[in-house]
Amino acid sequence: CVFRSGKHMYAQVINDVTANTLVSTSSLAVKTDKSGKELAKEIGQQVAKASLAKGIKHVVFDRNGFIYHGRVQALAEGAREGGLNF
User: Fold this and answer.
1) Neighbouring C-beta atoms of residue 79, cutoff 10 Å
2) Per-residue pLDDT tens digits for 24-33
């Protein structure tokens, strides 16, 4: 699940059956000087890394109603590059 605001971006891996958040990260948690699409890609890579560490390889990408463009697309590409399949 992805959420973006004017300043920050958030990504979570959620188990829909039990309604538990398994992995989450955001632009607040990533320590970097990047911004925009570069930061979104980094967030995607971080959520992929944390998911793979917990044995999660396949996910469903929920863009939360946001258009698949710009930062949302960059986050998805970063997660794919990090090893997640969706």
Assistant:
1) 26
2) 999 999 888 8
Q: How far apart are CA 33 and CA 27, in angstroms?
A: 10
Helix 36-53 with 71-82: angle, nearest 10 deg? 40
How far apart are alpha carbons 11 and 46 in whole angstroms?
A: 10
Q: Can you list the positions of beta strands (E) in 5-62?
A: 9-15, 20-26
Indicate the residue type of 75.
L
Asked whether 43 and 11 are in contact (CB, 8 A), the reply is yes
- At 34, the pLDDT band (50, 70, 90 cuts) reads confident
